[in-house]
Specification:
Structural class: alpha+beta
Number of domains: 2
Order of helices and strands: EEEEHEHEEEEHEHHEEEEH
Number of strands: 14
Strand order of the largest sheet: 12-2-3-14-13
Distance between the termini: 27 Å
Helix content: 25-40%
Shape: globular
Largest sheet: 5 strands, antiparallel
Strand content: 25-35%
Amino acid sequence: MHYYGSLRVSDYVTLKRYNNEIYKLTYYKTPIRQKGFEVGKKKRVRGVNSSKLDNNISRARNKVFEYAICNDFQYFVTLTIDGKKYDRKDLRTYYKDFSQFLRNYNRNHKTKVEYLLIPEKHKDGAWHMHGLVKGIPGKHLVKNEHGYLDWPHYRDRFGWISLAPIRSTERVSKYITKYISKDLSRTVTDLNAKMYYSSKGLKVAEEIKRGTLCADSVPYDFENDYVKIKWFDDDSIANSILD
């Protein structure tokens, strides 16, 4: 079988360190591509669209978790769009203006607000966002009538916003991935949009080793059609089962 742009290799494993605290061993069940090889054109396979969708969701969830746990986000945030200020169904225009708003805000206030946001669609077709943020000056936040924090700079421009302090980075990192769903993937694909939005330059996991398994006897924590994953709090355990 021939593939375009790479040579595929099976029994491939990576070990990554997240935020200097936890380690993730990933065993790729589906052969993955090695850069630097070009051996023909990729053959189209029946049913690839469904497989590609599932794979895209898995990759997006992994990346969202990686950004969430590797960066010291301060707040879990929900951002809405006021229909009197914006078209609530126009996600692309809203995000474009939101990102420009943040660039102006950071420049004007000499701050560095960073974010990781996932869009979610209401039944009426309107959009809102859930995610994580950091860097908003405390003096710019006020409590709303529900006891949550409000950011008037955002509210005055776009609509209602609510922020809650993060108490457990690991828990919120796992929780936020639930917003990456098949419905979201199909919807944003139709709009030529994204499943998540993030600031440039966020920290990522450090790959500390790659290779093949010495023995496939790992009690994995998670498994799907593409990967098997094991989490460790000690890299010596993971290193001992890698060639």
